[in-house]
Specification:
The protein is of the alpha/beta class and 367 residues long. It is built from 15 helices and eleven strands. Homotetramer.
């Protein structure tokens, strides 16, 4: 993972040009038409503001049904960073530390928002393997903290990402193991589910099984990367924490006044299994791409692609050829210029719900 940490994201853009062979990210894709229809339907007359509207009440009921959690506290925000930071802040004191993997989005991609919203809690990093935290590594890291009494951080929540940042998924036994370690120390568990649906359809389990039944206390339930315009649900299974989250959301400037437009999206997402259909489509597109990459000479997959993200190494010259033909994706640990053409360079490929077979096949034919 060293490469990823050091090099960060390299972008190559042709201004104003969206390629047909587009694997850059799942938040660059379109909004599903059913979501836009739901927004149009919600756009009728007046509704109470700040979440005091019928659609918000309906979405709360629906999320509770989907998660088989009648007491769950459900709050909508517009970004995953807000969901993660506000949930973690609600479960962390400023003198605690949050345990997460060394490639966690909360560590690498949220500009210290979890530290900011928690009022100064720190993150303790656990070396990841294949994107997941090995339970022994988490245990060792937890044991290192809270040994310095007044002088060092106390132990706070454990945060895990499902689908992980490298496109792998915690299988159920691994999920139970890692949550079990947190529970051994009495620590709450947060799940960053920016790609929750993609993991769920991969595992074929229920939302309850992947969360509270496994001991997860709170979830950032993603929607934006899976066909919404911009809504994530922050779900807390322990009802007493809901009020504090609401204070923090308002103070964090994430209480939307025209809340019905957030609710309408999330409600339509959960209607007729649209969220699962979109995740299945994204995963299937990624599977097709992964098979093609695997079969191509000179290409090496870096992790097992379980969901809708692939990391692979391709020769620099191959990247150049693909980019010149109009493909779009991110190089991950090197630049197009300044080295031998045969040198392998890592790249990330992401498929969203709208990815087409034609798109993938054109790319693979070029490859
Ligand atoms: C995209 C993503 C988020 C949310 O990011 P925002 O840009 O704040 O919406 C959170 N966690 C993971 C793992 C992500 O990939």
């Amino acid at each position: 993972m060293a490469d990823l940490r050091v090099a960060g994201l390299h972008k190559r853009r042709v201004p104003g040009h969206i390629a047909a062979m587009y694997f850059a990210s799942d938040n660059t894709g379109p909004v599903h038409p059913k979501i836009l229809d739901a927004l149009t339907r919600a756009n009728e007359g007046y509704a109470h503001a700040y979440g005091d509207d019928a659609l918000t009440a309906a979405v709360t009921r629906r999320v509770r049904e989907v998660f088989e959690a009648p007491e769950a506290q459900v709050h909508l925000v517009a970004t995953g960073t807000a969901a993660n930071s506000l949930l973690l802040a609600t479960h962390t004191t400023p003198w605690q530390t949050i345990f997460c993997s060394d490639i966690a989005h909360i560590h690498m991609d949220e500009l210290n928002a979890p530290e900011f919203f928690s009022g100064g809690a720190k993150l303790s990093l656990v070396p990841s393997e294949d994107g997941v935290m090995p339970p022994e590594a988490l245990r060792a890291r937890i044991e290192q903290e809270e040994t310095r009494d007044l002088h060092g951080p106390s132990r706070g929540p454990v945060s895990l990402t499902q689908v992980t940042e490298v496109g792998t998924v915690y299988q159920m036994p691994a999920l139970h193991d890692v949550v079990g370690v947190a529970k051994d120390f009495g620590l709450p568990v947060h799940m960053d589910g920016a790609r929750f649906a993609n993991a769920l359809v991969k595992l074929g389990c229920t939302p309850a099984e992947m969360t509270w039944k496994a001991g997860v206390d709170m979830v950032s339930f993603g929607g934006t990367k899976n066909g919404l315009m911009g809504v994530e649900a922050a779900i807390i299974f322990e009802p007493s924490k809901g009020r504090e989250f609401e204070y923090r959301r308002k103070r964090g400037a994430h209480l939307f006044s025209k809340h019905r437009y957030l609710a309408a999206q999330m409600l339509a997402y959960l209607e007729d299994d649209l969220w699962l259909q979109m995740a299945r489509a994204a995963n299937a597109a990624c599977h097709r791409l992964a098979e093609g990459l695997r079969a191509a000479p000179g290409v090496n997959l870096m992790y097992r692609p379980h969901a809708n993200i692939i990391f692979a190494r391709l020769p620099r010259g191959t990247h150049r050829r693909l980019f010149e033909a109009g493909a779009e994706y991110h190089l991950w640990d090197g630049a197009l210029d300044g080295g031998p053409e045969e040198e392998p360079i890592a790249a990330r490929f992401v498929c969203d719900w709208s990815a087409t077979d034609e798109n993938t096949d054109r790319f693979l034919a070029l490859l």
